[in-house]
Amino acid sequence: MSIHVNHIEKYFGNFHALKNISLTVQTGSLVSLLGPSGCGKTTLLRIIAGLEFADSGQVVLNGKDVTDKKVQDRKIGFMFQSYALFRHMSVFDNVAFGLTVLPKAIRPSKDEIHQRVMDLLRLIQLPHLAKAFPHQLSGGQRQRVALARSLAVKPSILLLDEPFGALDAKVRKELRLWLRDIHHELNITSLLVTHDQEEALEISDQIVVMNHGQIEQLGDAAELYHQPKTPFVTEFIGEVSKFTGIVEQGIWRYGKFEYPLSITQNTSVIGYVRPHEWRVNKENSGGSMLEVEIKHIHHVGALIRLTVLDLLTPHFHEVIVSPDEEGHYVLGQKLFLIPKNIQFFTD
Ligand SMILES: Nc1ncnc2c1ncn2[C@@H]1O[C@H](COP(=O)(O)OP(=O)(O)OP(=O)(O)O)[C@@H](O)[C@H]1O
Known about the structure:
Blueprint: E1 3-12, E2 15-25, E3 30-34, H1 41-49, E4 56-61, E5 64-65, E6 76-79, H2 91-100, H3 110-123, H4 139-151, E7 157-161, H5 169-186, E8 189-194, H6 197-203, E9 206-211, E10 214-219, H7 221-226, H8 231-236, E11 241-248, E12 251-254, E13 257-260, E14 267-273, E15 278-281, E16 290-300, E17 303-310, E18 316-321, H9 323-326, E19 334-339, E20 343-346
Parallel strand pairs: 3-8, 3-9, 6-7, 7-8
Antiparallel strand pairs: 1-2, 1-4, 4-5, 9-10, 11-12, 11-14, 12-13, 14-20, 15-19, 16-17, 16-19, 17-18
Helix pairs in contact: 2-3, 2-4, 3-4
The structure holds adenosine-5'-triphosphate.
């Protein structure tokens, strides 16, 4: 079941929360909405769920226009931060809830409900806790029960708002991989809101980067990192160093460093360099862009991460090098950096 939103506009009073949002989520894919706090992720998810209505634009689920349909008529599962478990109900009853409140005509029998709830508890690996109450569960277990509850009505679309928001890093990591497996096992279409880029990059097929109520870019993790379309995406996804230079006669100049660029007008142009995109020289063989001093050395598996201080402008940069090629590094050592690649945007 696919999700299409077309030209969604949303105001809260004078505040323009969503600006001409169009988005397609293909059947069976897992897509994340990623962006800084307040950029409109939750509002968009609520509009797709039918918990909020757009001022204009269209929501189409599986080819059907549901723009004016209420939440209960959209046949979707959702799990929002604010939808905590019912404290006075057992795990079993929490998961069964969505089924027991269905109109009689379409409500499964008691036996069928029992079967479905137990299947879901097995799926979330908690069948032994069916009789437990929410306060007897860990945070991660509670989140899994909340997910099982949202899956009980067999939705073909699952909307998740920061599903693992309040959990510690290790549990989050386990749960998100587990969520990815469940998503594929049940063949549902999932849209997930997160402000955690590692989470988005790790589990999503596609990521929608939002900023100030707009979509900046939609792509997979590699596209967003290697071919960002805007300065915002470049800075938001992964680490990057930023340099404002001047283009004159087709040459980008930053200090004495020169780099040919196919821009003809004379203008200010920002260049971005990722930590692994530097060539590092220990001697000054000319042509370097930065002269730096090593301030911190951190071994990350087979790679070395250097935090270096630019000796001209007092800015720190991150540089990732491989120890095999570059040999030994010591604190305070001087290095000369030449970019292997620069991503340019006009200022
Ligand atoms: N009911 C409302 N009334 C007024 N303003 C609202 C309402 N709901 C959201 N907003 C505003 O709209 C903007 C977008 O909010 P939204 O919750 O969609 O952001 P978000 O990207 O999900 O942020 P976060 O990551 O912090 O949850 C925010 O500036 C918020 O203050």
